[in-house]
Amino acid sequence: MTETHRDERNPQDTPRPAWTRHPNAKDEVRLRARELRSQGMTYDEIRAELGCSKSSISAWVRDLPKPAPRWAHVERMQRMEEAQTRLGRERDEERRRLAHEASLEVGGTSDRELLLVGVALYWAEGQKDKAYARRECISFINSDPQMIRVFVRWLELLGVGRDRLRCSLHIHDSADITKTTRFWSDLIDVPTDQFWKPCIKKDNPGTNRLNRGESYRGCLKIYVTNSARLYRRIEGWWYGIVVAARKPDQVNRT
């Protein structure tokens, strides 16, 4: 806004002469902001250059023409896609690096450690007995091959042989049942004649599920025969873990 003063001989407000104005510390910054805007810089670029707020910049340069886009729409979209691809690649590299470093921290595992890991794994993912539905048996289902492998190794530690395992697939009808059965059979070294009839779910017409690719293998359910007594021991081990977790001063035994 132009400063004015009132002239006694002229009732109308007239512009204040420049020589009467006091210098303002922001005048130089304002002029520089207008110069940068005239050169085509954005508000963010001007703010980075001068260190002032965007609201101040807007008040100083809003009367100037808006800079023309630096890139055409197609080029701008291409640059955005390249930036997203680069960011995704960097995140994948960091994810792999962190996972590798963490895996090295684990090192080897003792039988006791595997016992506790398996108990927690089963109590999180396995079938549990309920007062209203007695199910004192070991039954475990999961889609992660590595989790299935750890579970079977844990059963081996508990003295459960492969001959006591009965397996069944829970899978959608779009998958290759024969090929998938062979995959799980090879993974846990259990012959296919110990696989029960699969539980097949029909896909709804028109569905396009992202988890139906080449790596889709459904879920594998593992049932252990004659496992009521072992189930009760697992239940006791879990309660032992719960009690131990309440005592932070308890010394770990290895």
The whole-angstrom Rg is 35 Å
Count of alpha and pi helical runs = 8
What is the topology, as strand order, of the major beta sheet? 3-6-4-5
Low-confidence stretches: 1-5
Name the average pLDDT: 84
Largest sheet, described in full? 4 strands, mixed
Secondary-structure element order, as H and E?
EEHHHHHEHEHEEH
Secondary structure: number of strands: 6
The backbone outline, from C-alpha atoms, is elongated
Distance between the termini: 80 Å
- Give the DSSP E fraction (strand runs of 2 or more residues): 5-15%
Strand-pairing-aware structural class: alpha+beta
Keywords:
two-stranded antiparallel ribbon; 254 residues; 47% helix; alpha+beta; 8 helices; disordered N terminus; elongated
Describe the structure concisely for a colleague.
The chain has 254 residues and is α+β, with helices and mostly antiparallel strands.
Notes on the structure:
The radius of gyration is 35 Å and the shape is elongated. It has 254 residues and is an alpha+beta fold. 47% of the residues lie in helices and 13% in strands. Mean pLDDT is 84; it is low at 1-5. The strands form 2 sheets. Strands 3-6-4-5 form a 4-stranded mixed beta sheet. Helix 5 packs across helix 6 and helix 5 packs across helix 8 (228-245). The chain has helices spanning 27-38, 43-50, 54-61, 73-106, 111-125, 145-157, 177-188, 228-245, and strands at 4-7, 10-15, 138-142, 165-172, 199-201, 219-224.
